[in-house]
Backbone:
């Protein structure tokens, strides 16, 4: 099957300020992909690249099997529906706002209005047609903008933080809309979020972005520090990691929370990267037990749900070993 998008060795900078550097990324057709990362990670920049609003300074981007060139951009923009972050509503009625893109794409006034009414129904905004944007709440405005994107019926939908400003019920409804678009209409959907749970409710294809790069895990255990002793030690100022057997290049150290081995007894003698800490929180994530422990730095550990946690209370001592394959330098 042809991928919706293929990215190879791209970099993008804003006025010499690097924002994105991706070696390889394929987005299969009819998939739902979440771009997850903290603020400033580069999610919106990547989404704008996929919406053909910006072009990479280096590398290649293909769309539906064809390499994108700058002369195609205007046409390509019409093939994707983008819901921007903090979308702008024009100073006209809600109905006109939703119909605007349709008119630009050549639909008659009558057809556009009919389709806009349907779009507003999808986001539960029927009855708001003649209202003006300045009378809407943040959540209502976000739903109008979502309707405006949905009515375009593009092959690909790109949603930038679609759950922004929404109450819990509207978040659930948006989740359902995204799932229906994909399952019933086979649309390719890429959305950004800083909320991993929202992402995981919708898809197993989660791409973690940090400092403009794709990283293997969520940046839960992200430590800043200095590399010392000829590249053997990473010193955070509070603890030291032995990094002689680790992968990656960069100035931050990332520890995969699912590759930390731990015990409530003193164990792992003579192994590198063993730390003693204290449990400060215990909770249940989607399919793991989440343990937070303080050991000079705060660590997040993910244990299988089958784990017997009877010995793991808050305030208890814990010994854990960070295996070399758990560590990546980014
Ligand atoms: P995210 O969506 O993950 O919050 P962004 O893609 O918006 O991240 O930003 C990535 C980086 O690029 C940040 O350091 C941000 O400050 C910078 N950036 C974003 N937009 C611009 C811009 N228009 N001009 C200059 N720098 C920008």
Residues:
């Amino acid at each position: 099957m042809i991928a919706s998008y293929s990215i190879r060795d791209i970099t993008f900078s804003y006025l010499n300020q690097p924002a994105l550097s991706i070696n390889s990324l394929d987005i299969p057709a009819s998939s739902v992909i979440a771009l997850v990362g903290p603020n400033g990670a580069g999610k919106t920049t990547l989404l704008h690249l996929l919406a053909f609003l910006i072009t990479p300074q280096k590398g290649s981007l293909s769309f539906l099997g064809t390499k994108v060139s700058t002369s195609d951009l205007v046409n390509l923009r019409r093939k994707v529906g983008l819901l921007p972050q903090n979308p702008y509503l024009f100073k006209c009625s809600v109905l006109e706002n939703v119909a605007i893109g349709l008119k630009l794409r050549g639909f008659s006034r009558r057809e556009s209005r009919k389709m806009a009414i349907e779009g507003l129904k999808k986001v539960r905004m029927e009855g708001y047609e003649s209202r003006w944007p300045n009378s809407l709440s943040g959540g209502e405005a976000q739903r109008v903008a979502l309707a405006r994107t949905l009515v375009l019926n593009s092959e690909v939908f790109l949603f930038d933080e679609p759950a922004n400003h929404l109450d819990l019920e509207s978040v659930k409804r948006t989740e359902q809309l995204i799932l229906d678009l994909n399952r019933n209409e086979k649309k390719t959907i890429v959305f950004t979020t800083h909320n991993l749970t929202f992402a995981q409710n919708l898809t197993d294809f989660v791409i973690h972005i940090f400092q403009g790069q794709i990283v293997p895990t969520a940046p839960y255990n992200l430590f800043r520090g200095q590399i010392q002793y000829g590249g053997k030690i990473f010193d955070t100022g509070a603890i030291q990691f032995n990094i002689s057997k680790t992968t990656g290049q960069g100035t931050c150290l990332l520890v995969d929370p699912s590759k930390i081995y731990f015990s409530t007894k003193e164990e792992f003698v003579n192994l590198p990267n063993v730390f003693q800490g204290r449990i400060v929180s215990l909770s249940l994530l989607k399919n793991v037990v989440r343990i937070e422990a303080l050991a000079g730095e705060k660590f997040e550990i993910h244990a299988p749900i089958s784990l017997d946690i009877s010995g793991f209370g808050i305030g208890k001592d814990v010994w854990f070993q960070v295996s070399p394959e758990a560590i990546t330098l980014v």
Remarks:
- The longest strand covers residues 3-14.
- The mean pLDDT is 91.
- Residues 14, 17, 19, 37, 39-45 surround adenosine-5'-diphosphate (CB under 6 Å).
- The chain has two domains: 3-215, 221-329.
